[in-house]
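Lab meeting notes turned into a lecture example. A postdoc, R.K., suggested we walk through two folding results consecutively so the class can see how the record format repeats. The first protein's sequence and structure tokens come next.
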Amino acid sequence: MSQTMTLFAALVLLILSCLNKVSSHSITTTTNNNRNITSPHLQSCHPSGYLRGKSHSCNRDHDSDCCKTGEKYPQYRCSPPVTGASTAATMTINSFAKNGDGGGPSECDNRYHGDGEMVVALSTGWYDKGSRCLNYISISANGRTVRAKVVDECDSVHGCDAEHDYQPPCPNNIVDASPAVWDALDIHGSDVGDYDVTWADE
């Protein structure tokens, strides 16, 4: 009886040891797969921090939000992954003209751009340290597709200062478009503001 119990205990320990190895292998495999970032969950972009706001007046020409004292605004150094021919985004409206609600001159060329120019700013992750500067993207919405030049960053990290017209950081999925882009897409009136679009590099 004692010998039987000893054999049984040894068998249990052997099984547990094997299970532990399988479990460890599974964890390692998952860790290796994380580097490929193939899961939609792993591709998600989370805030890197929060910016505490300070109240100040800002240009409200396009119903822009002004920073508020004590408000915590999420900061993003990443954007959702670009998905080839069709990346989902939210389009907002912005004036890149001098004294417009876009703040200072455009990041890509240190210039202002009139409201009649087909230009956009992209959230920090998509702006990608200027890699898309002065390149064209296509924007599709409302049954139309138009071309616009990337001239600026819609800063998802910094804000609530003079350089950013005392507005909060941008969300991480923004195509901030000039009035000309909205007109070309035939989007007017109360539809102007936050609009679901897709975009792609050209």
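The second example is placed directly after the first for contrast:
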Amino acid sequence: MSAQTEDQRREDRESVAVRLASLQRVDGNKHCADCGERAPKWASWNLGVFICLQCAGLHRNHLGTHISKIRSVHLDAWTEEQVANMEQMGNIKANAVYEANLPEDFERPQDNEADRKSFLIDKYQLRKYMSTNVADDSIRTPTTNGGETSSSGKATKEREFAAVRIAKLLQVDGNNQCADCGELEPKWASWNLGIFICFQCAGMHRCVLGAYISKLRPLDLSYLTEEEVTVSGLLILFFAAWKCFCYDPVN
């Protein structure tokens, strides 16, 4: 029985390898979906795109697994659902969605890592170039890791929605700097105070103020709940209005 099971597993792996190799020969999949590099060896299976090593690293480090789930085409194990999603999407179809409003004269960043990171965040996290005719349900992550229950899928969708809302809040004037010290690109938030702050200030909030005054979340490592995102958004809008109407620079 064990020999038969092992034979079946080997056959499954071989079948997956053949299907992925076939997909890599499809027009559009021969180049990285993000930067255009030839012969991509990595993939984001939930987005359904083949990408190069450099873009795969940026997906993993800056987008996170709640947005992009990375697999090596040759080195990682693949499930049936993951391969099926790649077959259903592919680079051409995915870019028709995520790059529908990309300017015709846009030059894909290749040499500058900062520009490439910015482009990927705009494309997948902020969905800056996405077609307005595409519903969220048609592009949501199928499941968390290729075979979970529908309740887990719902939780994943909620996390994705929260991530998009947080990313949009970070684009609001003032939120691209720590609310306390002014450091650029804060990576933490005090959701009950409604402010974005840097790592050092977050440590001071936690050690000196305590959770009863300031409730902290790291933006890249954990997920804010619907309540936390809503409270943060409302407080940010409140303080923005206060600055506009109540602050007198003369006095």
